[in-house]
Specification:
By secondary structure, the protein is mainly alpha-helical. It has 2 domains: 58 residues, Orthogonal Bundle (Multidrug-efflux Transporter Regulator, Chain: A, Domain 2), CATH 1.10.1660.10; 57 residues. Helices cover 68% and strands 3% of the residues. It contains 6 helices and 2 strands; from the N terminus they run H-H-E-E-H-H-H-H. Strands 1-2 form a two-stranded antiparallel ribbon. A hairpin with a 5-residue loop joins strand 1 and strand 2. Helix 1 packs across helix 3. The protein starts with a helix and ends with a helix.
Length: 131
């Protein structure tokens, strides 16, 4: 398959395929005499695998690991370990985002209370936190 066909079938753009190639997620395709890339039949499936993993929050470095595990018929426990580590990362991010949300809520409340003030309470709070 040519690059445009793979991109269309996988639901990505051509630049994404080229990027995946550079990152090593997608094997470099052989070239036709004309210079066009000729992708292996499993390229679409692999790109869809990458995109689906991204929707689950995996970073490309983590996806590289998943692809390696996929290619070597690794045990489910190895893959489960990668997924469990991702869950821990997500839980940490949720805590961080909750803290950020709570801080912003406090700033918005302070801003509402200080409407008559010359200076915005949110801007003042951000100014106070400069290193």
């Amino acid at each position: 398959m040519r690059i445009g066909e793979v991109a269309t079938a996988a639901g990505v753009n051509i630049q994404t395929l080229r990027y995946y190639e550079r990152r090593g997620l997608l094997s470099a395709p052989r070239r036709r005499e004309s210079g066009y890339r000729e992708y292996a039949p499993n390229a679409v499936e692999l790109v869809r695998f990458v995109k689906h993993a991204q929707t689950l929050g995996f970073k490309l470095t983590e996806i590289e690991e998943l692809i390696a595990l996929r290619n070597h018929a690794s045990s489910c426990s190895e893959v489960r370990g990668v997924a469990a580590a991702k869950i821990s990362d997500i839980d940490e991010k949720i805590l961080q985002l909750s803290s950020i949300r709570d801080s912003l809520r406090m700033l918005v409340t302070a801003c509402i209370r200080s409407e008559s003030s010359e200076r915005c309470a949110i801007i003042e709070a951000l100014d106070e936190r400069r290193p």
